[in-house]
From TrEMBL:
It is a peripheral membrane protein. Residues 1-43 form a coiled coil. The gene is fliJ. Its main location: membrane. PANTHER family: FLAGELLAR FLIJ PROTEIN. This is Flagellar FliJ protein. Pfam families: FliJ. It comes from the Bacteria. NCBIfam families: flagell_FliJ (TIGR02473). Keywords: Bacterial flagellum biogenesis, Bacterial flagellum protein export, Cell membrane, Cell projection, Chemotaxis, Cilium, Coiled coil, Flagellum, Membrane, Protein transport, Transport. It is found in: Cell membrane. Belongs to the FliJ family.
Length: 148
């Protein structure tokens, strides 16, 4: 029984490590998506500054309208990236919950295994004590029978 429990504990630990890796990967994905958003936002800021600088020199309405339209597309891309981040964050949160749940399983199996080991140690100590008591009793009776 103890060997089976030890194998189960090892299996659950491996599962926990796997879940931790999945969570870490999901969290890295969130960070990558946030970096993409930051890059998009920075590009938008730089693009708008460029339009303003060019606009000071004087541009046609069509030119200005085209650039504003592109800024609108950048805004939409930023909004879509925020949605990607939200989905990635939800996935990371789910992975975290799975990892935490698996950690609880590992703790439960480890606790059970520890209790089992303590019970076995107590049983062995009790058997050893009984054997020592028996040995002491026999020595006492032998010493009593012996005239010396």
């Amino acid at each position: 029984m103890s060997k089976q429990l030890e194998r189960l504990a090892e299996f659950e630990r491996e599962k926990e490590q796997r879940e931790a890796r999945f969570y870490q990967q999901a969290q890295q994905n969130v960070n990558q998506q946030k970096q993409k958003l930051t890059s998009l936002e920075q590009y938008r800021i730089d693009y708008v500054k460029g339009i303003q600088q060019t606009g000071q020199a004087g541009v046609t309405a069509t030119y200005y309208q085209q650039h504003l339209s592109f800024v609108g597309k950048l805004d939409k891309a930023c909004e879509q990236q925020m949605q990607v981040i939200a989905r990635a964050q939800m996935a990371a949160d789910q992975r975290k919950q799975m990892w935490l749940k698996q950690q609880q399983k590992v703790k439960a199996v480890t606790l059970l295994l520890d209790k089992k080991k303590i019970a076995e140690q107590k049983k062995e100590a009790k058997a050893e004590q009984a054997m020592m008591d028996e040995f002491a009793t026999q020595r006492f009776f032998r010493a009593k029978r012996s005239p010396f």
